[in-house]
Amino acid sequence: MRKEYGLEKIEKLASNENPFGSSPKVKEAIEKELGQLTIYPDGHAPLLREKVARHLGVPGDRLIFGNGSDEVLHMVSRTFLEPGTNTIMPSPSFSQYKRNSVIDGAEVREVPLDSRGRHDLEKMLSLIDGNTRVIWLCNPNNPTGVYINKDD
Ligand SMILES: Cc1ncc(COP(=O)(O)O)c(C=O)c1O
C-alpha cells in the first residue's frame, strides 16, 4: 500500500495494532526466551492455561489457546464447518470468517451491515436453520463498515 499510494508513513487503524508499541514486559519476556528458540513450545500451554484459569476462575479445560485469535478462528471453522453446513456472518466483516468457511466448504450466508455499520441481528437470526453451525459476530466490527468521506 505504501508503494501503491506513494505514502511515507501509514497509521493503520484496521488491524487492532497498538500504535504506542508493546508493553516493556512483553519485550522482556521475549528476550528471556531467545535462547530456547530451537525447542518446541508445548501447544497445550499448560502453564499459561493454569494461570489464566486461576485468573478467570474457570476450569482449564474450558480454555482454548491459539497463535493469535486468527488461529482460534481457524480452529472453530475446522471443527464445525464442512460441506452441507452453513455459517452466518455480517458483511463486510473480518476477512478470516469467510476465508476459513469457504476453505471448509460451508455455505456462507452474509448479512449486510445496516446504514450505521451495525450487525443486522434480526436478519442473522432469520437465516439460522438446522444446518447452521457457526454465527460470526465481530465487536467492534473490522472493517467498521462506516466509511468517512475525506470531503465531509
Ligand atoms: C476482528 C478481528 N479478529 C481477529 C483478528 C486477529 O487478531 P490476532 O490474530 O492478532 O489475535 C483481528 C486482527 O485485526 C481482527 O480485527
Number of strands: 3
Query: How far apart are the first and last residues' alpha carbons, in Å?
Result: 24 Å
Order of helices and strands: HHHHEHEHE
Please mark out the parts with pLDDT under 50 across 5 or more consecutive residues, or reply none: 148-152
The 3D shape can be described as globular
Helix segment tally: 6
- What does the main sheet amount to? 3 strands, parallel
> What's the rounded overall pLDDT mean?
90
Bound molecules: pyridoxal-5'-phosphate
Radius of gyration equals 20 Å
Strand content: 5-15%
Helix proportion = 25-40%
Strand order of the largest sheet: 2-1-3
Structural class: alpha/beta
Give the secondary structure arrangement, pairings included.
Elements: H1 2-5, H2 24-33, H3 46-56, H4 69-80, E1 86-91, H5 95-103, E2 107-112, H6 121-126, E3 132-135
Parallel strand pairs: 1-2, 1-3
Helix pairs in contact: 4-5
Written description of the protein model:
The chain is α/β, with parallel strands linked by helices. Among the domains are: 24-62, no CATH class; 69-135, no CATH class. The protein is 34% helix and 11% strand. The chain is built from 6 helices and 3 strands. It has helices at residues 2-5, 24-33, 46-56, 69-80, 95-103, 121-126; strands spanning 86-91, 107-112, 132-135. Strands 2-1-3 form a 3-stranded parallel beta sheet, covered by helices on one side. Strand 1, helix 5 and strand 2 form a beta-alpha-beta unit. The two termini are 24 Å apart. Mean pLDDT is 90; it is low at 148-152. The structure holds pyridoxal-5'-phosphate (PLP). Pyridoxal-5'-phosphate binds at residues 15-16, 68-70, 94, 138, 142.
